[in-house]
Design brief:
3 domains; about 15% strand; Arc Repressor Mutant, subunit A; alpha+beta; globular; three-stranded antiparallel sheet
Amino acid sequence: MRRQAEIPSDVEEFRDERWRREGALAVETAADAERFIEQVGFAACLTDSRRPGPSLYVAVCGRRDAVKPRQIQKDPETSLTWQLKDEVMRRGKVYYGKLPRGPMFIAPRMIPYFHAIWGMRRSDEAKSLSKNARAVLRVLRNEWEMGTADLRAEAGVKERSAFTKALDELQAAMIVVPSEVVYEPKFTYIWEIAAGRFPDELQKRIGREVALREIARCFLSAALMTFPGELARITGLSRAEAGLGNRALVAEGFAAMPGRGMYRLSG
């Protein structure tokens, strides 16, 4: 990927507006966060300016050069981002889960395309999911939602690290999502089946090529221009698949290709 300093000024200014990297556009409430996620299509949660792509943390900071401090426990911007993440997750209007590139928000309109790439059909679960992931999923399908400690006990996964890995596996396949977080009497997440929150979006059948094209379109629409490896680094797609999506946009005239691996909105 090109260095931040080499990104043209007009592209940076476009992203400042779309990614809420300006003080006047900073995200302050859960409703602000939901509008931001809907506008950009998908966004990371707590990444800062050292990683490309839209981010809720950067949008809360409202500045292009936002970098998380080492001591985040007392940082008001990190704290607000965390609080908004909890509230947005609780409201359930946008998708939130840990995907291949980490915790990410997805606007409902983009869920079918992400699911076409990373989702898993029920018929493939037996051969594709680990034993622990299947055990956790079996419990959740019976109970529908459950707190972390109870879910771990019911699933019979004794090692905490193995249980966390199983949950990560289920989130990466867009099967399970956190739906609530409770801090008293002790901290715990409440987990549920993703299809319970977004049944229509997760039932749609989208071809992989269409999904790649629409994910590329979504990012380019909010970024103006994309550079070699950028889309892959943000989403977790391979560079080859990201290129397929971007070249499909060039073929239909939505984007131009000013250089190798570089794509820009036409017009």
